[in-house]
Write a structure and sequence with these properties.
Elements: H1 10-30, H2 61-74, H3 89-98, H4 100-103, H5 128-147, H6 156-168, H7 178-194, H8 206-211
């Protein structure tokens, strides 16, 4: 019996060489010389929906009217900024619900679902789309029963009373916990008010201008050495434009 060779066989060498050539060819095919600053496209590998597209993407017209009334009451207009409605918070929520957030597509969604502790955060089996659809319908029934009007038809004092009772859990809603629904809407409203305008809210960067946030600037080196000075930087969106979403 002949002792097996401890080195490479001709077949192994040929296969190895062929593989190396293929890898090398693929690498050279992708190679490119970059001159200057490469252009960057937001979400280049996972493009978002067009947030400035007119019309509602998830809400019905009736639902949108009620959500706009809620966000307008949660963030009323004053001498510091426009209202949550005029800032586009309802548009932000609508676009989020129409996307992967609305279905929690990227989250683990298998049961069992059990009531959690405050430290465990959200344990609801309902995804955001369901929370809004069920919650808005239930809120509408409650307001009709109490005031014979939808939430959007209530005056400011009545709206405040309803939202306060929701926050306290003093209202019973059909199909969803009132306090849980309020927290969902409040959280999304705040996100829409302060998020980058590319997502539909914070129109004309109103909240950033209010708090003096300069936005998504690429480079701050020119300002590092400027101490105790008011810079008055114009906020910039992710896309680099200070006029993004100004039209609404």
């Amino acid at each position: 019996m002949t002792e097996k060779s401890k080195g490479f066989t001709r077949r192994q060498i040929l296969v190895s060489s062929a593989t190396s050539l293929a890898v090398g060819a693929a690498a050279s095919a992708k190679a490119a010389t970059v001159v200057g600053t490469p252009a960057w496209i937001p979400f280049d590998r996972n493009g978002p929906m067009h947030y400035d597209t007119p019309g509602w993407q998830f809400f019905t017209a009736d639902e949108a009217r009620e959500v706009e009334a809620i966000v307008e009451q949660l963030i009323p207009a004053d001498d510091l900024s426009v209202s949550g409605k005029d800032a586009g918070c309802a548009v932000f929520i609508d676009r989020q619900l129409a996307g992967e957030y609305g279905t929690f597509a990227r989250l683990y969604r298998e049961g069992p679902f059990t009531p959690g502790t405050p430290a465990q955060a959200d344990q609801s089996p309902l995804v955001p789309q369901e929370r809004y659809r069920i919650g808005l319908a239930a809120l509408g029934k409650y307001c009709q029963a109490q005031f014979q009007k939808p939430f959007s038809g209530l005056d400011g004092e009545q709206r405040d009373k309803v939202l306060t009772d929701l926050e306290k859990g003093a209202i019973s809603l059909e199909g969803i916990d009132a306090k849980f629904f309020f927290q969902q809407v409040l959280g999304n409203t705040m996100e829409g008010f302060f998020a980058d305008p590319i997502y539909g809210g914070n129109r004309d960067m109103v909240s950033w201008k209010m708090i003096g946030f300069p936005g998504a600037r690429y480079d701050y080196r020119d300002y590092i050495a400027l101490h105790n000075q008011k810079l008055d930087l114009v906020p910039l969106s992710i896309i680099g434009s200070s006029a993004w979403n100004k039209k609404g």
